[in-house]
Amino acid sequence: MAGHSHAANVKHKKAANDKKRGKIFSKLIKAISIAARDEANPQFNPRLRTAIDTAVENQVPKENIERAIKKAAEPGEELEELTMEAYGPEGSALIITAITDNRNRTVSEVKLILKKQDAKWADPGSVLWAFDHDNEGGWQAKFPQAITEDGKQKLEALIEALDDQDDVDDIYVNIDLSVNELTS
């Protein structure tokens, strides 16, 4: 049977895994670059130390981590950290953080994803009130809300679509389930 060789199947699976791994590496390297802008020494920068630890856990090569730290110290391409707000299914609140080199492109791509998933863009500050900063620099819901199973499925699809966007770093929601439980 033509086209059904074991080698071809392995090649396709490896390509898919490499693509996922590359996307994760890219996000982690951007997080390291943003954290290293203020202080390049991880002993004095807990945010950088956490980003490096996460990268090491995900098997990012040490050379890539060092290159990202050096690149952050050099003038040139500036990465910017964005915090965007949105409302998802059944009024669930979302905070979307992104690291980008082009604010306008990233915002328009996120708005398009939200529109396709029947979610709504929110004005700055209209969602942040429902969250507090947590110890790791992320966001924790003050008032977790319950949504239906259908709403959870829609929210899961929205989070997956947002996570597929290269610049999106983290997504926080104010429902009973954590994002990790939804996307795993």
Automatic annotation (TrEMBL):
GO terms for cellular component: cytoplasm
Pfam families listed in its UniProt record: TACO1_YebC_N, Transcrip_reg
Organism domain of life: Bacteria
InterPro entries to which the protein is assigned, alphabetical: Integrase-like_N, TACO1_YebC-like_2nd/3rd_dom, TACO1_YebC_N, Transcrip_reg_TACO1-like, Transcrip_reg_TACO1-like_dom3, YebC-like
Keywords assigned: Transcription, Transcription regulation
Keyword Transcription regulation included in the entry's annotation: yes
Domain named TACO1/YebC-like second and third: residues: 79-133
Domain TACO1/YebC-like N-terminal stretches: 5-73
Family: Belongs to the TACO1 family.
Name of the protein this chain belongs to: Transcriptional regulatory protein
Native species: Candidatus Wolfebacteria bacterium RIFOXYD1_FULL_48_65
Species lineage: Bacteria, Candidatus Wolfeibacteriota
